[in-house]
Amino acid sequence: MKSVQHFIIAAALLIDPLCGIAQHTSPNNKKMSYPKTNKIEIADTYFGNTIKDPYRWLEDDRSAETKAWVNAENLVTQNYLNRIPFRPTIKTRLETLWNYEKFTAPFKEGDYTYFYKNDGLQNQYVLYRQKGRAKPEVFLDPNTFSKDASTSLAGIEFTKDGSMAAYQISEGGSDWRKVIILNTNDHTIIGDTLIDVKFSGLAWKGNEGFYYSSYDKPKEGSQLSGLTQIHKLYFHSTGSPQKEDKLIFGGEQKPRRYIGASLTEDERFLVITAAESTTGNELYFQDLSQAGSPIVNVVNDFKGDHNIIDNQGSKLYIFTNLNAPNYKVVTVDASNPGPGNWKDLIPETDNVLSISTAGGKLFANYLKDATSLLMQYDMDGNLERTVTLPGVGSASGFTAKKTEKELYYTFTSYIYPPTIFKYIIANGQSIEYKKSGVKFDPSNFISKQVFYTSKDGTKIPMIITHKKGIELNGKNPTVLYGYGGFSVSLTPAFSTSNIILLEQGGIYAVPNLRGGGEYGEKWHIAGTKMNKQNVFDDFIAAAEYLISNKYTSKDFLAVSGGSNGGLLVGAMMSQRPELFKVALPAVGVLDMLRYNKFTAGAGWAYDYGTAEDSKEMFEYLLKYSPYHALKPGISYPATLITTADHDDRVVPAHSFKFAARLQEYHKGESPALIRIETNAGHGAGKPTAKIIEEQADKWAFMLYNMGLTFKQ
Question: Is 654 one of the annotated active-site residues of the chain?
């Protein structure tokens, strides 16, 4: 889901070209023995239909019974994984090849340049700073936040003069955050540590304080699973106790599920976005240059996405998809800001637009068939140049303060390790700044885009990546990865975890399914609510394309996805279980009748609809809901479900219940396992060691169940 709801989970592991895949005899799984999972008679009634939910008790993440079940399931899973002879070899290779310096693009705050760096196997990236040509110094080291490195740095914002910073920490991967305020000169902590902050940015107003958003603690259920509905925007005054923070917007008087705040760079305007779901928002601003000025409404409905990205005096620059599904930039004067007065600055085109500002310029990052096309405009909307990128792939960054003459951006693709470039704004020159240290030669691989036809005739793009010269004989181990929701665009990105497959003749395929944002809001809507089956049909057609063109076959095809992509994998298992050898649903939304009962799940209804909406919507959800669509006596693919006990985005109960029913119904000899990470969340901030362990387990499980092995 977009922004803080965004479900995308990325790993960056590596394997080298000396490794190869060989066959072994198919695993002798026999009939697996699973922990006994109690069934309790409980049911709900929807429009006269009684739906049994015997594993409802697993929704209680605080109960001793649930904890005992988790331990028993993990024991079975680890015992199975321990039987795979080459699993330790995969882990060792990952650890060895992960061990190189990694950097992020630098950014300037006050007198310092800041950047993140990981020496190699550090569990968390360290934030450094450098003044001029002096030696870089550690500013914040999240590896010291907790003994097991499960507490991560989840964001930081500096005052305009750089003298203070407020940073968020996440404990155990939770979306609930704490905020700590620092004097950047001597690292002394200023005032309270703020608690119970969730889905929030931090927006400084001078050195007076900052705006942030939070919810009250859930009234029912645990803090990790309880429903969060009413967001509140507060102002925290520097040095004062949190209990004195002033409510600015939201709360019971203006109930909204998601509220975000930012300030224009000159700190004149406070910008407020308010939303009920992950799509569409109201837009407000307040002129902070005038004491006591009111909060002004610009857009008063949730029909589109809008944000104020910049200003020149009272002239506002607004990024919007109002009457422009592919987005555009408009301008309007703050004195009369309603949509009727908007004037197009960068009109909508056939390609989806995202926008950023740097050095007093606008950078338009278009998606052209899911790859980046960059254009530089002046503030009057005049095109200055098309930015020359290193190749076909994904470019990100293109942000800097108005006074800067240069910026830093990152470019990557499925076979192009992330590389940082310095961009000279005045002449458009890109200079390689930091090349990835990963030991990988892109010249040995190919990544190509194809278009295939879905069930209803829609053309779907897919990027297929593999080693050059492989034989298309239907025997290549293949991972088909998808998402298809919440207007999230899957653009090319390098992953060393995937290279463990590619270097050994495997194939990685990513289709851009409907429900995503690759072709704008129309593409998104075509995969939502009563159109959700389009997403599944697109994915099935991708698998059939790979098989019919001999890239792979059903005996060597794995299907993978996380969060909303976990839902996708679960749907594939129930709709076409014979089409895949291995299924890897990660942190998935798997109970479509009750997803809206937990944490921020009610905000996903724009994409999914809810079982309470109508009889028609209930029946549609029930038909594809992975937990409900499983049937007894079916032979399902070898399945490794992954989740985490601190996931408060998609609560682990989804995976728990799905695993329990899968183990009950599955008739085949292939394993149906669940791997439950402890003291981890939805994915963000996960320590390197945990990432490596999880990725090694997935690759070992996949190859073993395809009858393959990993050779060094």
Answer: no
For residue range 427-464, what is the model confidence (pLDDT) as tens digits?
999 999 999 999 999 999 999 999 999 999 999 999 99
Look at residues 294, 236, 284 and name the one whose alpha carbon lies nearest to residue 260: 284
Kindly state whether residue 33 falls inside one of the protein's structural domains: no
Please tell me the distance from the alpha carbon of residue 460 to that of residue 666, in angstroms, as a whole number: 32
What is the count of structural domains for the chain? 2
pLDDT of residue 179: 98
Q: Residue 359: give the domain boundaries.
A: 349-435
Judge whether 710 and 703 are in contact, CB under 8 Å: yes
Of the candidates 524, 646, 654, 682, the residue annotated as catalytic is: 682
Q: What is the pTM of this model?
A: 0.94
Q: Which of 277, 563, 574, 670 is catalytic?
A: 563
296: buried, middle or exposed (CB in 10 Å: 19+, 13-18, 0-12)?
middle
CATH number at residue 537: 3.40.50.1820
> Is residue 344, in this structure, part of any structural domain at all?
no
Q: What is the pLDDT of residues 322-379, one digit of tens each?
A: 999 999 999 999 999 999 999 999 999 999 999 999 999 999 999 999 999 999 999 9
Active site residue 682: yes
| pLDDT of the residue at 29 | 55
The reply to whether 607 and 501 lie within a common domain is yes
Residues 375 and 501 in one domain: no
3-state secondary structure of 97: helix
Cβ–Cβ under 8 Å, residues 388 and 401: no
